[in-house]
Structures are given as structure tokens and as C-alpha cells.
């Protein structure tokens, strides 16, 4: 869905303490920005921020960076994060950062061993054969993530798309990841640490099951 241009979105984002205007400035310095050595978790394609805001509130012992490309989406994420922290009685957002970035340039932003965990939630499945290399789980992206993911780091991947889920398992294995958890029906699996995203709720209402896996980097 195309979003209408909102000229006020960028100024509002730039006025926020937790929006990063130029993430490239912090390559190999993210722990300094958070002012601690807590593990850093990265969400690729955060949308309206419903996922990262819940994680940020529930896990103050972790740091979170959430990325999307559109200011018009990120400004909604900013507001949702602020609201969630306020509801939790927190005056300031300290362990979540937002930034705008085309994910194809992700290795320009993070240095070796900076990220402990990556979340990929309901990314574009790119079903046409000529477009499959654009998938965020494709080998060419996994090789980029490996440049900054810790040696035992994990990728948590959720999707509604059967073909993408099946082929992504091959991508992970080929790129040196071990699949340590997998389910074709997340909501009936008993998995305890799930945060339902906006798309996940929509697909569930359509009776489409959420597929989920955890892939651990082994080489």
C-alpha cells in the first residue's frame, strides 16, 4: 500500500531522542550510543513499531534497533513506541532506536559482532523467480548479516507465505545457519516469547497460519 507523503514526518522524527538521522555514523559504536554493553537486537522492516515497542518495554536488559525505509511509517512507529513506554510508566525511551535505511546497505551501518539477534517479520515474499534475490532471507542478504551478527547469533523469522518459508530454510542452511526451532503454526506451538505483529493479526483473522523459525549462525 502506497503511503501519502507527510512533510511533517521527517521533522517529527528528527526531533526524537531515539531516532537516528545517520546510522552510518554509529558503525562499531552502537554500544556507546546506548551507553551500555547489553546485547543489541535488530528488527528489519519494523513497520508501525508494534513489535519492537513491546520487546523494548518487556526486555530492558536488551537494546533494540528498528529499521524501515519510509518516514511516513517510522513516524507511526515513533508514536507507538512512546505510547507503549508511557503506558509502562517509563518517561524516556532508552533501549530502542529507530532509523531509516534501505536494507541493501545494512553492512554499512553495523560492524563485526555488533548484533546478537535479528528479527524478520512478514517480509515481502517476492514470489517471481527473477525477484527472489530481493528476499530478506535470501543468501545474498544472509551473507551481509553474517558480517555483523555474533558467532552464535540468531535470526527469528516469521511469515504467512508457504513458499517463502520452505525456500528460506534452504537459504539458511546453505549460508551456515542451523535451524534450531521451527513450526508451521506458531500460535498452536506453545512458543512463549512471541509478540504478535500487525500483519500477523491480520493473517490470523484470515485463518492463515504463521510460520516461524529460529536460525543460529554456526559458521
Automatic annotation (TrEMBL):
Q: In which pathway does it act?
A: tRNA modification; N(7)-methylguanine-tRNA biosynthesis
- Give the InterPro entries listed for this entry: SAM-dependent_MTases_sf, tRNA_(Gua-N-7)_MeTrfase_Trmb, tRNA_methyltr_TrmB_bact
Entry keyword annotation includes tRNA processing: yes
Question: Which Gene Ontology MF annotations are present?
Answer: tRNA (guanine(46)-N7)-methyltransferase activity
Q: At which positions is S-adenosyl-L-methionine bound?
A: 43, 68, 102, 124
Question: Does the keyword Membrane feature in the UniProt annotation?
Answer: no
Q: Which reaction does it catalyse?
A: guanosine(46) in tRNA + S-adenosyl-L-methionine = N(7)-methylguanosine(46) in tRNA + S-adenosyl-L-homocysteine
Recorded hits in Pfam families, A to Z, give: Methyltransf_4
Concerning Gene3D superfamilies, the annotation shows:
Vaccinia Virus protein VP39
NCBIfam families noted in UniProt: PRK00121.2-2, tRNA (guanosine(46)-N7)-methyltransferase TrmB
Name the chain's protein: tRNA (guanine-N(7)-)-methyltransferase
Q: Which organism is it from?
A: Clostridium fallax
Amino acid at each position: 500500500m502506497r503511503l501519502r507523503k507527510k512533510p511533517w514526518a521527517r521533522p517529527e522524527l528528527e526531533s526524537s531522542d531515539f531516532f537516528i538521522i545517520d546510522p552510518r555514523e554509529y558503525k562499531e559504536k552502537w554500544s556507546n550510543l546506548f551507553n551500555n554493553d547489553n546485547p543489541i537486537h535488530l528488527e528489519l522492516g519494523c513497520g508501525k513499531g508494534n513489535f519492537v515497542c513491546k520487546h523494548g518495554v518487556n526486555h530492558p536488559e536488551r537494546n533494540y534497533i528498528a529499521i524501515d525505509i519510509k518516514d511516513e511509517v517510522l513516524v507511526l512507529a515513533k508514536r507507538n513506541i512512546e505510547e507503549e513506554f508511557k503506558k509502562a510508566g517509563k518517561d524516556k525511551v532508552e533501549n530502542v532506536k529507530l532509523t531509516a535505511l534501505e536494507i541493501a546497505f545494512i553492512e554499512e551501518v553495523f560492524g563485526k559482532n555488533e548484533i546478537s539477534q535479528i528479527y524478520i517479520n512478514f517480509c515481502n515474499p517476492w514470489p517471481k523467480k527473477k525477484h527472489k534475490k530481493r528476499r530478506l532471507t535470501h543468501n545474498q542478504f544472509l551473507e551481509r548479516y553474517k558480517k555483523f551478527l555474533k558467532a552464535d547469533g540468531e535470526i527469528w523469522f516469521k511469515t504467512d507465505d508457504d513458499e517463502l518459508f520452505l525456500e528460506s530454510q534452504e537459504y539458511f542452511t546453505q549460508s551456515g545457519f542451523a535451524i534450531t526451532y521451527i513450526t508451521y503454526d506458531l500460535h498452536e506451538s506453545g512458543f512463549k516469547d512471541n509478540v504478535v505483529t500487525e500483519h500477523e493479526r491480520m493473517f490470523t483473522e484470515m485463518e492463515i497460519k504463521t510460520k516461524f523459525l529460529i536460525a543460529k549462525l554456526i559458521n
